[in-house]
Write a structure and sequence with these properties.
Helices cover 45% and strands 11% of the residues. The chain is α/β, with parallel strands linked by helices. The chain has two domains: 65 residues, Transferase, Pyrimidine Nucleoside Phosphorylase, Chain C (Transferase, Pyrimidine Nucleoside Phosphorylase, Chain A, domain 3), CATH 1.20.970.10; 245 residues, Pyrimidine Nucleoside Phosphorylase, Chain A, domain 2 (3-Layer(aba) Sandwich), CATH 3.40.1030. A seven-stranded mixed sheet has the order 3-2-1-4-5-6-7, sandwiched between helices. α2 crosses α4. The C terminus is likely disordered.
């Protein structure tokens, strides 16, 4: 497979470049994930795509190639859809509460798969917080599958699910730039359509892109503005939460824009140990769950099928969390 023509078409600049067809994009990205593209050409392709910007059709092709090479996990018949949380950003300013969302879902009997990176390069990753909570990464697919079967919150490093995508993410340290893998990992479903993906990003264009990818693939998921890119709702101000299903999308909660009247009690520091201690206090009902996260939890219960309808999902969370009057609206 020659790469000069791809580089030529993609690298002509903003005005002269041509986007790849979906088929071309799938073929090219498949070769990249298989490790078949030499370093020189690979660097040129990544830079060219970064400068041009990936089209939706290209991303659909990349998405198909990525999912086709990802190791699969199996959901269980008669159980809620496993919730898939992509945790790749980590936190720098505020506490990383992705593990709290995962453990709350586990409390309601929903299987949860968290995939991401172990090291955060200066940020606090979900893996760091889980370790403080006594939850270690699954080192194999069989170990992850056992946890899913037990309706547990399971953290799996990306290298276990997709070595090719893990290699793509690692190129950021060499090239100094993000590449399309950073967006693809946010929408991947290791359950091959049987999971419920929580897709989060910080910039509106990426949210629109992820929503279109999920709709185009016929997947089920929630799309929201993440907190520092992590897939949990900002605990101080709820983002808009959209539910993708059956080829379309509906808004379950609109974003909050009014001034914050009272701030929730949050961890004093963002380090993993302090975050884990705070999470334990919330799980033990010693601290209230921030309302935006209660809203997101209700959305997850509804979208995963753990609740029969959205009103029931809100009621379940309200009764459990003692926030009935606030969440019922």
């Amino acid at each position: 497979m020659g790469y000069a023509n791809y580089i030529k078409e993609l690298g002509r600049g903003a005005q002269g470049s041509r986007s790849l067809s979906r088929h071309e994009a799938e073929q090219l990205y498949g070769a990249i994930l298989d490790g078949g593209v030499p370093d020189l050409e690979l660097g040129a392709l990544i830079i060219a795509l970064r400068m041009k910007g990936e089209s939706l059709e290209e991303m659909q092709g990349f998405f198909a190639a990525a999912e086709g090479r990802m190791h699969a996990l199996t959901s269980l018949t008669g159980r809620p859809r496993p919730v898939v949380l992509a945790s790749y950003n980590g936190s720098r300013k505020a506490a990383n509460l992705t593990p709290l969302l995962a453990l709350l879902l586990q409390r309601f009997g929903v299987p949860v798969l968290i995939h991401g990176l172990i090291e955060g390069f200066g940020r606090v990753t979900s893996a760091h917080v889980f370790r403080e909570l006594g939850i270690m990464p699954s080192v194999s697919l069989s170990q992850a599958q056992q946890g899913i079967a037990a309706s547990q919150a399971v953290f799996v490093p990306l290298s276990v699910l997709s070595p090719g995508l893990a290699n793509q993410l690692a190129l950021r340290s060499r090239l100094g730039l993000r590449n399309c893998a950073h967006s693809l990992v946010k929408v991947l479903d290791p359950f091959k359509g049987d999971g419920m993906v929580v897709a989060a990003a910080t910039h509106p264009p990426y949210l629109d892109l992820m929503q279109e990818l999920l709709i185009g693939a016929g997947r089920r998921g929630l799309v929201l503005r993440g907190t520092e890119g992590e897939p949990f709702a900002n605990p101080t101000r709820r983002p808009r939460i959209s539910y993708v299903h059956d080829g379309g999308a509906e808004v379950l909660f609109e974003a909050e824009h009014e001034s914050i009247k009272s701030l929730p009690h949050l961890p004093d520091e963002a380090d993993a140990r302090t975050t884990a201690q705070w999470i334990r206090r919330v799980l033990d009902d010693h601290l209230p769950l921030p309302l935006p996260m209660a809203h997101q939890l209700a959305c997850c219960l509804y979208a995963s099928g753990a609740a029969g309808d959205f009103n029931q999902a809100k009621a379940i969370v309200a009764v459990d969390g003692g926030v009935l009057a606030a969440i019922a609206g």
